[in-house]
Prior knowledge:
42% strand, mainly beta, Phage tail protein beta-alpha-beta fold, single chain
Amino acid sequence: MPHTLTGNVMISVPNTHTPRLNLRPLASALRRSLMLGAVLALTPTAIAHAQSQADTAHVQQMDIPAGPLGAALSQFAARNRVVISFDASLTEGLLTEGLNGSYGVAEGLQVLLGGSGLQAVLDRDGSYRIVSAEHGALPALQVSAAALEEAARVPGITVYDAEHIATAPGRNGQITELLRQHPAVQFDRYSRDSKTPADLSAENISINGAKYWDNNFSVDGINVNNDINPGGRTVAANSSTTDLPANTSQGMNLDTSLLEAITVYDSNVPARYGGFTGGVIDATTRDPSQRLAGSISASMTKDSWTEYHLDERYQDDFYDSGDPDGTAEIQPDFKTLTYRATLEGHLTDDFGLLGSVVRRQSTIYDKNIYARTYADNGVTAPTVTDLQQQIDNLFLKAVWAASDRLDLGASLNYAPQKAEYFNINTLNGGFDMESGGLQFNVKADWRGNWGTWRNALYYTEVEQSRQNGADYFKAWYASDEKNWSDPTQRWNAAMEGTYGNIEQSQEKLGHELRLELLPFAAGGVQHNVSLGSLVEYTEASYVRDNTFVQANGTDLVATYSCLTASGAVDTEYCSESPITANPYRGWEPGAGQMFNRLYYYLPGEIEVDQLSLAAFAEDRMEWRNVELRAGLRAEWDDYQQNANLAPRLSGTWDLFSDGSTRLIAGANRYYGRNIFDFRLREERESLRYYTLRDSTTLEFGELTLAARNATSLQDMDTPYDDELTLAIE
């Protein structure tokens, strides 16, 4: 259940001025949607804000006749048992159309005050004050009353408000850290591991047992998932020339100090949301405060301030492990630093700015590059190193109440992330992983006489790249020259290098349009109808800027000479130093080693793109103590060209009409997203070649394409989950 909001919350009821805003097309893929957005009046919604207390969330049947506004407010307060205070001079001479149907407190006040130029302010004690709509802009801490009432009324929805966000324990200010109390959320085995206190990466979560990359992570309703290779965290740093160890399925970080609320949908998810088979996590950023305010802070943690309670059997493994650790899975010696600076406020009554800079960095000390047995056998290279991680978060937000009906807003979130790793037991095996990205959006909300239009134009870029590593990888037998492995083992390669630099990125340009009609009654049933469409163009790329050469240990043969027929001595892929290892096959006494085959990944860029379309319609119907929500979501993309229809149906029956016992049922279908790594795999083998060494001249021959791709994912069906729910609450 959501927590109680601190601070004041306003329910704005605008006057009747009707400006228009035209959006210019930014891309051919979005042109039709943007033209539609330009034709339609774009306006701000009068955002309702409220506390998550039972008295504000409870929906009651209202029958208040049209008449004087003051009398209607008094009658409304008595029926809902809430305190509403106002100056009689404010309502003198004002009329209201009354109420007829089921309403929550916030929603009912919004309708009663419609067209009056007044607004309701919800105070901390749960009472309301009626003030002029010109009283001022909305405060920084606010939670949508509609969202809170929906969370209290509809199963499967949980809203965590600003108080919960501010007080919940968390280590790195990550969104997923705040969801530990949610019964449907499970965390992976890396989560909050006491062995990794300096790991800054966001935690992977599962909702209802789905894969962690099957969730929809959104910020202000805009998806920020990493769809390049979200499952890559299970890829060891030393195991693949093409796959990268990923950050997490959450494509970029956002410091939780910037959030107003987090809404989790774990079942009976509304038709507005798509692209998931697990659940939805939608984070809402807060608006600037009314008054000018700022803060600067710094914090630090370190190993000397930390006390571990370990079983004596495992103390040596933790504090003095002899194993190499290229991904820092054990961190007994560490330090983390966090710096924050925020400045916010309203420059005028209706225009506000918020700016925030956050940097988190950690240092993990003395990680073994080689196993201690290697070092004890005469390794001459450096055997330990420190690893660094860093996350930056630059956030800017502007809000402008352009008129009584039009709200404009824009926000920018730039959140790059960098972490150092190394290939274990490998000479020159260090590399950096760069991830994170950028999100920019512009929003326009227009409240008309019969509904609210919501428009959002957005751009996101997510990166997952490997940088600053060697452009070669060699796996030698141990020898006096290649002395950084353990020759007593049958096959412990003296490895050298990394798998080369790879740049992967995912860019999205999208436009979302929604219409939320004002509640209306028909046949004794109150209807709350919402419609929407989405146009999204996504482009993903895989880039190698330099040639990468791979020399496998399985291609080693014995040799006594590295002199080629051209007179050159091959020192890169041949060594005359006699091997000291015990190879699998026979080896001439005193012979050195050379590679008789090399694999090449040539420089190149692979790009795939996708145009996605979606539309939805939904009606939330209320009749006495029964509520039914029926919706349909349609999706299509130009790659798989599957027309997917996802019905959404859920209902609740308040058995005793007092909220004490409810019967809940639902039947829903959820379609997943296309993971772009699969499509990039189809193409990247076109960059892979090999060359063979002539056994007589010792020269390498021409490059030959290693393999032709025969895989196509285009005819596959879109993954989906069907959900059936039945519960008593």
